[in-house]
Amino acid sequence: xxxxxxxxxxxxxxxxxxxxxxxxxxxxxxxxxxxxxxxxxxxxxxxxxxxxxxxxxxxxxxxxxxxxxxxxxxxxxxxxxxxxxxxxxxxxxxxxxxxxxxxxxxxxxxxxxxxxxxxxxxxxxxxxxxxxxxxxxxxxxxxxxxxxxxxxxxxxxxxxxxxxxxxxxxxxxxxxxxxxxxxxxxxxxxxxxxxxxxxxxxxxxxxxxxxxxxxxxxxxxxxxxxxxxxxxxxxxxxxxxxxxxxxxxxxxxxxxxxxxxxxxx
Length: 265
What we know:
Layout: H1 5-26, E1 32-34, E2 40-42, H2 43-56, E3 65-67, E4 82-90, H3 92-97, E5 103-110, E6 113-121, E7 126-131, E8 135-140, E9 146-147, E10 159-164, H4 172-179, E11 182-187, H5 191-197, E12 203-206, H6 212-224, E13 228-231, E14 250-253, H7 260-263
Parallel strand pairs: 3-4, 10-11
Antiparallel strand pairs: 1-2, 4-5, 5-6, 6-7, 7-8, 8-9, 12-14, 13-14
């Protein structure tokens, strides 16, 4: 089944439904638990997960679902190499801090590549969506989706670098020293990649741990906006091996002529 605008819109509507449920909990007191890896978990994570899973199972394109909140129930991609990749609440730490920088992430993976992606930040009223062959779009509030595009970094201008608000990583300063003059903007969740996609940042270096569901949807947005999401060896970040949910370090890039693997060599 081809990726259609209707499917993209349906997925976006599903992310917004989950966002509404998250915001209901965000507006009141809620308990915080911790998983085995010590990452935080709230009732908002569980509520959004249930809404998304139920909704995906009603869409015309059905595929197995790999969600951060249910890895045990995932048996692998289907015969076409497709599966839905979901982070019901990306940026739980930002949710707990109540700074608004958290998102709902839904991606469709095909043969290891994200071919559809929706990122919705309910507290900020920001939505990003993209699909292979359809382009990448941003929505603010109740406005209409507008096409977005990465920008080219001009020689002599400071690099606009976006970094994690909660996971800075010890290797970032060394990279920034090699880049030279730069401006660093801190941001939470998958919004960091979306800043690159819409041309508000030149590069997002992730030199710390992430999981497949943290990046799949936003990677699609970056790539369909004309950017790249690369491992440090220059290969694209991929999603074929679901037995290993941790991503390698990566870079989300706009347009530039830097030899990034050499920079890390």
